[in-house]
Write a structure and sequence with these properties.
about 180 residues, alpha+beta
């Protein structure tokens, strides 16, 4: 019995030390990570709605509307030039964050993909301007799937981006009333 107690206690102490060190690392890096995420989000806002700053966060207004969309809404910002919606849609590799800029006329200005785990050289092509630029000028009235050239062998990713854009346009139509 005694020969088992010492190794078990040793493993427990090592595990407790490692967990403590990981908690300390998390504590000291949390602010840096949050700042980088905030900077990335601000950069995305400027890309999808150029010259739109300053923005007002209207996420609470959108949440109060309880709009049911296929893609998950996570954030909404408004400016004099339009709106930027941050949507999350299911792609092949998991969740895809899509920033959608919509002008005051209800047309997509630009989109940008955020964090995603799509397949390199397949689904990752959705991040390229050759793909994202196809959404510029589209509105809720357009049959978006018919206007977009799908990425070969990445239809799940393409569909996920289309769903995110359609969902953002649906939210815009309710918010802009």
């Amino acid at each position: 019995m005694k020969k088992y107690v010492i190794p078990v206690l040793s493993l427990f102490l090592i595990t407790a030390c490692v967990v403590g060190l990981l908690a300390l690392t998390n504590h000291f890096t949390m602010g840096i990570i949050q700042e980088r995420e905030r900077c990335a989000a601000e950069e995305a806002l400027e890309i999808v709605l150029p010259g739109g700053a300053p923005y007002t966060n209207i996420s609470n207004i959108v949440e109060d509307l309880s709009i049911d969309t296929e893609a998950k809404f996570t954030c909404a910002n408004q400016s004099d030039k339009g709106y930027v919606f941050t949507m999350v849609s299911k792609g092949y590799g998991g969740d895809i964050i899509v920033y959608v800029g919509i002008n005051n006329e209800g047309k997509v200005v630009n989109i940008m993909l955020g964090d995603n785990e799509e397949t390199p050289n397949l689904g990752k092509k959705a991040e390229l301007p050759e793909f994202t630029s196809q959404f510029s000028g589209l509105s809720k009235e357009d049959e978006i799937p018919d206007k977009i050239d799908y990425i070969t062998r990445a239809t799940i990713t393409t569909d996920a981006v289309i769903v995110a854009v359609e969902s953002a346009l649906e939210i815009y139509s309710e918010v802009a009333k």
